[in-house]
Amino acid sequence: MNITPKRHRNIKNIARSYFNHYKTRNPFEIFQKLGISCSLIKLDGDLKGFTHINEKNIPCVYINNKYDYYSQKIIAAHELGHILLHRKDDLNMFEENGISSQKEYEANIFLMEFMPHVQPHDKNYIQLSPTRLKNYIRSKIC
Ligand SMILES: [Zn+2]
Questions:
Q1: pLDDT tens digits for 113-131?
Q2: Percentage helix, strand, coil, to 5, in the chain?
Q3: Residue 92: pLDDT above 50?
Q4: What pTM was computed for the model?
Q5: Could you tell me if 70 and 111 are in contact, meaning their C-beta atoms sit under 8 angstroms apart?
Q6: What spacing in Å lies between the alpha carbon of 130 and ligand 1's midpoint?
Q7: Cα of 2 from ligand 1 centre, angstroms
Q8: Is 42 helix (H, G, I), strand (E, B) or coil?
Q9: How do residues 18-28 score in pLDDT, each as one tens digit?
Q10: Residue extents of the structural domains in the chain
Q11: 90 C-alpha vs ligand 1 centroid, how far in Å?
Q12: What are the DSSP E strand ranges found in the chain?
């Protein structure tokens, strides 16, 4: 396990509090309510999405429009995780290749907690290694 139980609880609580407050598990609706711009655009290759934080610390989310709506929500929930968990530590851009694998893992944990229906049915996702969790999520995106 690459995450302390305390940090895991913390991420769970953040995901739960956004759901309780906004009563939705659709990350696009959360973006809308928070006034965060989110665009569906054509992205080259395998890039699923990314968040750009501008110099005023305002995030803009971009999601690859080649994926279906369900997949786009999964990608958006991961980006929402970065915004809620990592925005304060990254004042500059944070495109995927500049992000630590720890932050990637945390954003994936947020996604699992915010959209629990995406979790594996046969095992607890927290028992998967960060790489296996990433591969599991990838397998859900098409
Ligand atoms: Zn990420």
A1: 999 999 999 999 999 999 9
A2: 55, 10, 35
A3: no
A4: 0.92
A5: no
A6: 12
A7: 16
A8: coil
A9: 999 999 999 99
A10: 5-140
A11: 13
A12: 37-41, 49-53, 59-64
